[in-house]
Design a protein that fits this description.
heterodimer; A: 750 residues; alpha+beta; Aldehyde Oxidoreductase, domain 4; Aldehyde Oxidoreductase, domain 3; 3 domains; eight-stranded mixed β-sheet; 20 helices; 31 strands; B: 162 residues; Ubiquitin-like (UB roll); DNA polymerase, domain 1; 2 domains; five-stranded mixed β-sheet; 5 strands; 15% strand; globular
Chain lengths: 750, 162
Amino acid sequence: MSAHGYKVVGTRPVRPDGADKVTGRAAYGADVHLAGLLYGAVLRSPHAHARIRRIDTRGAEALEGVRAVITASDFPPADAGRIIDLGEGQQTVAEVRGNMLASGKALYKGHAVAAVAAVNRHVAEEALGLIEVDYEPLPAVLTALEAMREDAPILHETLTRKELGTDTGEVSNVAEHFRFELGDLEQGLAEADVVVEREFDTATVHQGYIEPQNATALWNQDGRIHVWSSTQGAFVVRDTVAAALNVPVSRVKATPMEIGGGFGGKIRVYLEPVAALLSRKSGRPVKIVMSRQEVFEGTGPTPGSHIRVKVGARRDGRISAAYAFLAYEAGAYPGSMADCGAMCIFSPYDIANLCVDGYNIVVNKPSTAAYRAPGATNAAFAGESVMDEVAERLGMDPIDFRLRNAAHEGTRRADGPKFRRIGCVEVLEAMKNHPHYSAPLEGPNRGRGVAVGFWFNVGLASACTIGVNADGTVNLVEGSTDIGGTRASIAMQAAEVLGLRAEDVHPVVVDTDSIAYTAVTGGSRTTFATGWAAYEAAHDVLRQMKERAARLLETEPECVEYQDGVFRSGESRMTFAEVAARLNETGGPVTGRAGVNPRGAGGSYAGAIADVEVDPETGRVSILRFTSVQDAGKAIHPAYVEGQMQGGSAQGIGWALNEEYCLSPGGAMQNSSFLDYRMPTSLDLPMIETVIVEVPNPGHPFGVRGVGEANIVPPPGAIANAIYRAAGVRLSRLPMKPETVMEAIWAQRD
Amino acid sequence: MQTLTRVRAIVNEQPVEFLCEPRQSLLECLRDILGLTGSKEGCNDGNCGACTVILDGRPVNSCLVLGVEAEGCRITTIEGIARGTELHPLQRAFLNQAALQCGFCTPGLIVAAKALLDEDPDPSEERIRAFLANNLCRCTGYDKVVRAVQDAAAAGREEVPA
């Protein structure tokens, strides 16, 4: 197959699940209905930090229509200290359970403390009001810097600080301090002609998927537990339910329903084990669907952070040293993705001397979760703002400065590994050559900014089977839930191998009983890794089909060639469909299968060019024009690659300009609705121009890198840099909402 | 348990009759009583638009209408948009433009866009963006959604010359 000879890869077929999704037939988690279904609801803590002295559920149990009430004491006995790996880092059973139903202490406003199952949602909600909880409110700590202070209130009496890999034994809110180091930072700073050091703060933001978390569970009389939910990983659901309820994984079947957005936020499990416990107690299936307020207050947003960046460069334009201090709020339990921020912040650059200090800090906010390139966007806002200022001080064009220092094959990343072939230079060149970058930008209060970003992408395990139909089509069975069109991008890779049309491959996403282990849809891995499994399974089909064709053509399999859907041996030929029609007389059905765990995920670079206008009277920032550039490696379905870039850009714009958790001094979220948590609407955005760069990943048969995440990383930095050129102020705080912009403008005027 | 009230309405051109509690929203009635789960609940407070239906010619958030208020009304949901076995031009355009990723906001967007095209068969980009501003989409950045509505409008004008 030549690089340019693809017949399916690189085309734009209609997605296989398209008709269901435009007609309302696609079944999402909240659409599950079972005979005898009960409706669950969850009682949540009104305090950000409180000891739970007593829970009295008798009033709720007495209400007509209530079938079960549970608290953390209903979890079956288990080894609380057992460590489990659920695809998003390791946690103890106590932590996994603790976030589902608080035990002993409520650690954030919205922390679940009890749950009810009743005949309908209204009765369940009424019952919540009849549960009496005796709280002893405790002082709350809400930011990373406050939580690091020695006199800060402590969240976990058992959490001790890890310092550079060693457990200090000291009880602390600082779960971990780690450091990545290359070269000699002090030496690099001594060589610098220009040094810029700035501090930044970024607010807690939410993934903002439109579909709330949901779960339906049936604890069957045979002891098996069946759950249906909207999740990024059915096997994570299975394994979490099994761990939380202390049953073997083989006792749990997880059926992934269609998922209404995730962006990292639907990896962690909140409701499934709770619904299962309610089902066991009531003997009936139980469905729980979160309200929007619960989604904001009870699920994992992405960490707020405090960041300090120092960059030194020589007069010749080369960066000689870079330092970052990343203090990330993990929320109620350890795990903040500060390590990912540290891996990404300087990855667009080839820097000999660098150091990143990362801190993972617990605070009385919801336990944070992944959000599209988790940890990288906060860091890049800070890093790219400083890079822009260094370029300005050197009198260099910001893209030329980045090209002068761009990471390339052989550059070492802060955390150690050397890059294989990457597309950082190509992304920067595409930005520089784009008409947007050279277009005149006229009018007062307008400015253009750029930034770049990196996400490393992951591989992880995927399984796939392909069965051949008698009409010459195939069915493709996979375990990756489809959030953004991956049924299409996976089926297309199989079609390319099989010489079939995209529409002749019918992909189906199945439950955990029906496919081997497949890791989450996350880390930009699905088109890369599950696509690779489909590629291998398709080759397995082809090997078997060649044997069948050989039988029919009366020759040996190695004498059969296959091209463009036709098996050939000398002058004889048969099409794929003709061989498929005769499988039963040549040995029976053909099934191809593959399981992969690829290591060669190639990181993806993205860049953004933003034109803004700043209203000098109100501080409101409008996006006039926006261009997103990203290295896809190979775009399997370019329309969905563009869609990822546009969606990531829109989320990055929201993060830059509007979105934040507004907390009361006591830690209660003041804006937990879509009215007050202001995500971009169609009226807030222009068309988002895209440039797909293709520097093939040498670690994938089609060169795929994965495109889901890197695109959200540059927008806040690009917009901050554009605001500087429009209004002359460098902002150090996200979101760059009108009052933040005005305060900076006023401060400058004074 | 509350007393049930009888409601009669026309849903997707079919007369329906159902019993609901006064506190149940139209969205809840459509989904849980009539089994029309195409309308989605994203916020239940009128801010996301995933539950948009056309009620007597106007797009509304069905989570903000009580079931009992639908008495005597004519309602179109996403299930009533396709023409028999043929997709509506808006539905075709959404697929051809790849204007959906997760698809959860799609029913509301298509219903709202239909209400727009019923009123204005040739809307400007600005008009489309203003009209759809009640419908949050977190996946697409709206670019392909706006293009799909533009395409559908053009296709509609070809079908029925003004």
